[in-house]
Amino acid sequence: MSTIDLTLDSILERYKAVQQRDYQIACIGELTSAINEGNDAVLHLPTGTGKTFIYAPIAIEASESGFRTCVLCYTKFMQDRVREDFARFPGGNIANTIFGVSFYTCPRFGRKADNWTCEENREDCMNQSYECEVIASEKRYSEDPLIITNYSKFLKYRGADWDLIIIDDSHSFETVKDQAYQYSVDYGLVDEIYEKHKNEEIIGDFLGNFCDIFDDIFETALPHERKQGTLGIDFVKRLAEEIFTEDNEKRLREGIQRLPDRDKQVCDEVYRFVGACKRAADHRFYLRKDWFTPEDPKLAELIAREVEATIDFKIPDRFRRARIILATATPGAPEKHIRECTQRNYEKVGLKVVPETMPKSLADWFRNLDIYLLSDLGDTRSSVNFRRALRFAANIMRIAKAKTILLFKNFNDQKMAKDFLKNEFEDIYFVERDDDEDTIHKYANQSRIILASASTRLWEGISINDLRLGIIFTPPFIRVPVHVPAPTYPYNERIMLRRLQQGIGRLIRSETDEGTCLLLDANFGKYVQRKRFADDLRERAREIDSADLLRAAEIWDKFKE
Ligand code: SF4
């Protein structure tokens, strides 16, 4: 493991470039000691408390002292923001951002770069000395002292030698890590794109063949009562042999390249999935039906996941000997969280949680948050109760004309809500399953009402300005990853509680924010009592019935200001 030796005085000297806060100074001291003593660390502070200002001077000091440092962010937006924050500190301009390939332009083919074309042509492009940002960024990734990149790049690209790795918003890293080594194909999206292109010879045949086999898989691959499970080898062979052949592969790839961006992305996913079927020995294959509506094929997906032995090699190889700092607002159980992220067992490496105790001044931020547990709307997994909850939410939004987020357990509930609300309210943003982080960020910030389901990335830290009201319909359980042998309740509940607290916590992002969060499902009452639900939030929660809440002028008058 890397031995890092940093001088606290020098770090604090850099830190003077921004407004001094006692708790930040204390955290810089605790983190520096933890790293100097050979530990990994979890920096746990609420959103908006300036975690970047705590780790940036440490990262800059480390890189200037000869310790290669890498900062990992979820989205390109976050990478840009973190780089701006670094630039405020002496020496911070040294930090270079490295984005995903699709954010660069290809000088050779005169279009947006993509992994596919680069993988195939990289060597030739290098021989022909193309001055290309993709090749230049790969060189920087191996050589620069201080890099800011994204989770996917870090997990999927080859390993590099880092002394210090900082994972920003690390709660999202757990989810991305689970998905980084698999290709998944969402049948609903494929069917939609097929309908657009079904009369085109190459693309129509390609997607049509896939949909035909998918229909057979959906009907017969799993016993009726199973919602997810592995795919038999016969289906994998059919997928490998019947979708496209070596003879038409080149024409197919050219056809996919000519499609509009979104269609191209879906076709690319199918192509890569079928490619994994052709290399079946390297993967395991799964069918996953929707948890709540398993009879609907449009909500089902096929997943090809690299074999676990390969993944078990890759993740430790990405971290190698680096010291690791996780920065998070909602770690749940910090030790479990860091183990999930890094796959280290922490028997030989120490682990510190910073700060040791949450400063009172920060806990006080949550005084401006009200959480109401609705006592009479019942279990919103039942469609009758869900519709009641929806009517109630609409009534609330008629009174409280504030920026509002509505969070649902799944895409179907979200769609039902959209159909119900779209004629009554303007300015609604409905987060689609395939919206990327930057699209979500843009539209979530422009719209008054935002609808999102538990599986979308919006729960995981995409920041939304001026949010005042949150309405959470149902506990946001997400599916256990396909490779986890049997759905285990505690695993699911840990992730659900983390998402729930992220959903609530996004209402308070500064000392002056005020927020109101309504938890509609009757089961929330027991979940807020769990050990992993933060005391600061639990103290703000109170039970109320829906009629009383609608009549409570003292609550809604605040929204008229
Ligand atoms: S590696 Fe080649 S194909 Fe990829 S962006 Fe660079 S020039 Fe284009």
Number of domains: 3
Low-confidence stretches: none
Question: Bound compounds, please?
Answer: iron/sulfur cluster
How big a fraction of the residues is strand?
15-25%
Total of DSSP H or I helical runs spanning 4+ residues: 24
Mean pLDDT: 90
CATH architectural category of the largest domain: 3-Layer(aba) Sandwich
What does this structure look like?
The protein contains 24 helices and 20 strands. It has 561 residues and is an alpha/beta fold. It folds into 3 domains: 8-175 and 310-359, P-loop containing nucleotide triphosphate hydrolases (Rossmann fold, 3-Layer(aba) Sandwich), CATH 3.40.50.300; 182-307, Fumarase C, Chain B, domain 1, CATH 1.10.275; 362-560, Rossmann fold (3-Layer(aba) Sandwich). It has a 7-stranded parallel β-sheet with strand order 3-6-2-7-12-1-13, sandwiched between helices. A 7-stranded parallel β-sheet has the order 16-17-15-18-19-14-20. A 4-stranded antiparallel β-sheet has the order 8-11-10-9. Strand 16, helix 19 and strand 17 form a beta-alpha-beta unit. The N and C termini lie far apart (56 Å). The mean pLDDT is 90. The structure holds iron/sulfur cluster (SF4). Iron/sulfur cluster binds next to helix 5 and helix 6.
Short description:
The chain has 561 residues and is α/β, with parallel strands linked by helices.
How is this fold's topology laid out?
Elements: H1 8-15, H2 22-36, E1 39-44, H3 51-64, E2 69-73, H4 76-87, E3 96-98, E4 105-106, E5 111-112, H5 115-127, H6 133-143, E6 146-150, H7 151-156, E7 164-167, H8 170-179, E8 182-186, H9 187-197, H10 201-220, E9 228-230, H11 233-242, H12 246-257, H13 261-278, E10 283-288, E11 301-306, H14 308-319, E12 323-328, H15 334-342, E13 350-354, H16 360-363, E14 369-374, H17 383-399, E15 404-408, H18 411-421, E16 428-430, H19 437-446, E17 449-453, E18 469-472, H20 489-505, E19 515-519, H21 524-527, H22 535-538, E20 541-544, H23 546-551, H24 553-556
Parallel strand pairs: 1-12, 1-13, 2-6, 2-7, 3-6, 7-12, 14-19, 14-20, 15-17, 15-18, 16-17, 18-19
Antiparallel strand pairs: 4-5, 8-11, 9-10, 10-11
The protein binds iron/sulfur cluster.
